[in-house]
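Review form for a predicted model. The reviewer records the input and the model, then writes brief findings.
Reviewer: anonymous (R2)
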Amino acid sequence: MLSVSVTDPVRQFMNRIMREDVLDAFLLREAVLVSRTRVHLYGALEDGGGGFASWAEMKPAAAELIKLGGKPKSLKLVLSARQAKREIVPASAGYKTKLRREYR
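Model under review:
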């Protein structure tokens, strides 16, 4: 497991993940948005295949929840890479990140 703490300004980070395709190739396991309410989004597909929706598919729902609930106090994303996708965060993303590896 890899935990990433974003050190970029929050506004810049939110703009990039909501408006650009930086994380679109990743699968969404879970998203937790906290503003006036706490909302959980689960990316599990209900087709019986046991797969997960991509962040690109779930991003519009997350954006709508942010519009309805106002500026989020916190946002937690649990993403996983597709089997063919090995690069954790594309170098082109330009994020300054602090990485911590956790082994289980």
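Findings: The CA atoms of residues 4 and 99 lie 5 Å apart.
Further findings: Residues 2-101 form one domain.
Recommendation: see findings above.
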